[in-house]
Specification:
This protein is an alpha/beta fold. Helix content is 48%, strand content 17%. It is built from six helices and eight strands, in the order βββααβαβββαααβ. The protein has a three-stranded mixed beta sheet with strand order 1-3-2, with helices on one face. A hairpin with a 5-residue loop joins strand 2 and strand 3. The longest helix is centred in the middle third of the chain and has 25 residues. The protein is elongated, with a radius of gyration of 22 Å.
Length: 187
C-alpha cells in the first residue's frame, strides 16, 4: 500500500466513502456507527482503485510542475477592474466575431460577456454567444480559436466531425491551439 489515509467521522454519512484529493491525500469519511476495523476492511477492498487514483494525481502534479499553467486574474464581480476587463473583452469579442462572421458567413444572435467559472464560451440553440471576460487576457490566436469555436456552434450544436471540420477550415491549427489552451491556462 503506497498511501496513507485519514479517517473523518460524519453524523450525516450513511455509509463510508473515499475521497482522493488532487494533492494525493486520501480521506475516508465514515458514519459514527461504523467501526475503524470496518473502515480498514473497506479501504483494503478499494486499495487497487485508491493506488491508481493517487498515482494519476501524482503524474498530473509532475506534469504540471514541468509545465505550469498561467493563472488568469480573478476579478471581483462589480469591481472597477472587472468592469474594465468586461468592457475590453466585449470590444475584442465583438470585433473578432464581426471579422469571422463577415469572412466566413457565420450568423449569430446576441453576444454577452460573463464571469464563467469553468467555460471560455458557449452558444445557445438560438445562436446567442457568451464568452468569459478572461478571454481578454489570452494571446490573440487563442482568442480567435475560441471565437471561431463558438461561431461554429451556430452551425453545428455539437462536437461532431462536421463541427471540427468547420473549425479547421477557418483555424487550421485549431488542434494545437486547443491543447495550448488546456495546458497553459487555468481559471
Amino acid at each position: 500500500m503506497a498511501y496513507t489515509y485519514e479517517i473523518k467521522e460524519s453524523a450525516r454519512a450513511l455509509s463510508a466513502r473515499i475521497t482522493i484529493h488532487t494533492d494525493g491525500r486520501v480521506v475516508v469519511t465514515k458514519p459514527r456507527f461504523v467501526s475503524t476495523a470496518a473502515v480498514e476492511r473497506f479501504v483494503r477492498t478499494k486499495s487497487l482503485w485508491i493506488e491508481a487514483a493517487v498515482k494519476k494525481f501524482q503524474k498530473r502534479a509532475e506534469r504540471e510542475a514541468k509545465n505550469p499553467k498561467e493563472q488568469l486574474p480573478r476579478l471581483r464581480r462589480g469591481s472597477k477592474a472587472y468592469i474594465e476587463a468586461q468592457k475590453s473583452a466585449r470590444t475584442l469579442v465583438i470585433e473578432r466575431v464581426r471579422h469571422f462572421s463577415t469572412a466566413h458567413g457565420f450568423t449569430h444572435g446576441s453576444i454577452s460577456i460573463r464571469n464563467q467559472k469553468s467555460r471560455w464560451g458557449s452558444c445557445s440553440q438560438k445562436g446567442n454567444l457568451s464568452f468569459n471576460y478572461r478571454i481578454v487576457h489570452l494571446p490573440s490566436e487563442l482568442t480567435d480559436y475560441l471565437v471561431v469555436h463558438e461561431l461554429a456552434h451556430t452551425v453545428h450544436h455539437n462536437h461532431s466531425a462536421k463541427f471540427w471540420a468547420l473549425v479547421g477550415s477557418v483555424i487550421p491549427e485549431h488542434k494545437k491551439l486547443r491543447i495550448k489552451l488546456k495546458r497553459s491556462y487555468v481559471f
